[in-house]
């Protein structure tokens, strides 16, 4: 797979949630910080304010605006910065109103004359395992705001429209269609942000690396086939650079040398295969570029602190939907970002 698809596949766990919510003024809703989650809000109708944590200035959101919170940071939405926020914070895991993963809901009451302002939002949340965090996502800010601009990001707008339609009028196959649309929307949001960084001339980090034709080519080659006997020289050839020039540029942009990242990615891929497939340890070793099962086991133990066979047994002993961190001494339960469904 390509780099971005690999990142999502490595970190995603459990099922995403989504809702189309119709808010009647006045309204205000808090969403708590949730470790190991990411979420989005899209304004389909009307306007509102996103209130960041820490007393930062509210962000005005209008029709078509997309907000992505990649680190599960707490925030609030309201029709006005002065509207009191609803307590307690929205919690779909412990609230019986969140039994359906995909739903449509209404908040507040409509006046007899229908004069209250209405805002319609599309929200969603993803479970992400912190133990498998990719540095690409670590580069993202706490809040990614993608304002609507006429003629920009038509594919993102199309995905929003399709998802909103499915939530507003669920039909046969919705349980298959909605998760696929949520994954598509997540990838389009990330694409849009990285494209913006490239347009701004970002010179460091993963945004710069993906926007750099040479380093991007090497990364895509490495991710397409991590089992190849890659060296700094062969990766440099993919990039069209000399060994020294490639190593220097890769390390500057990514923050670690090429072979260090290669080893880390191979171990991340191995962990996913151990959790999700029945491949033998020898087959896993071969698929990530190790000719010796013994050498693979040693490398895996250095990275995860446990032997690959034990890692597999531990990961399968935990409930599949819990998102438990099987590499940590004390399991940590992750949860999805808090939806706006009330």
TrEMBL record:
Residues annotated as domain HTH araC/xylS-type: 216-314
Biased composition (Polar residues): 332-342
Keyword line: DNA-binding, Transcription, Transcription regulation
Record-level Gene Ontology MF annotations: DNA-binding transcription factor activity; sequence-specific DNA binding
Lineage: superkingdom: Bacteria
InterPro entries, sorted: AraC_lig (IPR032783), AraC_XylS_family_regulators (IPR050204), Homeodomain-like_sf (IPR009057), HTH_AraC (IPR018060), HTH_AraC-typ_CS (IPR018062), Tscrpt_reg_AraC-type_HTH (IPR020449)
Residue segments, region Disordered: 307-342
Tagged with keyword DNA-binding: yes
Name of protein: AraC family transcriptional regulator
Originating species: Streptosporangium minutum
